[in-house]
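Appendix B. Raw example, untouched.
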Amino acid sequence: MTVIVHQPAAGPAPGDDAAAGRIAAAALEQFAELGIRRSTISDIARRAGVSKMTVFRHFTNKQGLVEDVIARELHRALAEIDRRWGAGSTIEERLVEGFGFAVSFVRGHPLFGKLLRAEPDMLLPLLTVDGAPLLALYRTLIAERLQAEVDAGRAAPANVDQASEVVARLALSLILTREGAITLDDRSTIEALVRDTLLPMLRLPGSTGTPQ
């Protein structure tokens, strides 16, 4: 599966228009209810209140629709992570909010949560062996925001890109593998992870305190 994701921007999700959006929303509901394999284009068209022909005019086939639905949801998630980062007053708060949202979004998502449990082969390649585009996007988003912290004198990682990739890879790994010494099951564990593992990597030169 090849899902094209783009850096969030103002406006609709990639490929959005009224009919396509309604079909994608219906497909999301259908996939979450029955799974991707058991869902048909007829099911989705009926739920969306359109004909099968209308679905095929917007999406070449079921695979194209699946990829569009996933891309839309990832676009929505990344936009929300970006918003929460901007709302934090310190880098610690921003990292906690970003991690917290990412965990709750994937684990509580009506489709992603179901796929991870029942049809992992439909989602895991996007996040693992075929995950380079998503990792690159996530790394870039983090790097841009981390560079702003560096420019403001609030952080000084040895290498911004490497630090950003560590954060991105760590987030994906912890979200996908729930069991372990680090579970991220509540805010206190997320705060501990940020405080004890991430902030030391981002400290100001010669500083023994937390970057603000």
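End of appendix B.
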